[in-house]
Amino acid sequence: MNILSTQTSANAPVFIWGLDKPHGETAESLFKEVKAFTDMDFSLAVFDVTDWNAQFSPWYAPAVFGKDDFGGKGRETLHFLENECFSEIKSRFPESNIFLTGYSLAGLFSLWALYESDTFNGAVCCSSSLWFDKWDEYVSSHSIKSPSKIYMSLGDREEKTKNKIMAKVGDRTRIQVELLKDDSNVEKLYFEWNEGGHFDEPRKRVAKGIARIIG
Fold it and tell me: How much is the pTM?
């Protein structure tokens, strides 16, 4: 895990970000993007992802584009974050709040983790894959585990797709926002629409979310 930091204060937040080569640039460029939005202290902890569809899917689901199914290894990823990443971060920044961060399927995973674990202080979930199979059933019967700050966003053209499954993302995101508003453990909820489709400026969208949480 690579940790980049501007920390001069003892309690500056730490954001955990999982990236693979096809889904993101170097940790340094991501770090600079966030710094362009805020001059407040924070740290970015980046871990490597080798199988995006498997490691960020909370349960198995069939492919909705391409040939790759969703392997459902999200619980293994969560276990790694809780037991290895969290310990390393706390050893360096014992007073810091720790937030999960993700885009697309990683955004879905970050939100799911808050329903499954009381380890983290919130999440930045951008263009999250809330069209995911049975997500609506899952979220209707679960609550956020501990007091959390959550940022969500979606591109205003993301639901305008010919893929009938992925087109559900708009309505599911609207429902998700309302559920979080009513969740007693959501201390603060931020939601905004971005211009564009799913692949428009993902790094900038996540950077905006981190800056909003910090601010």
Answer: 0.95
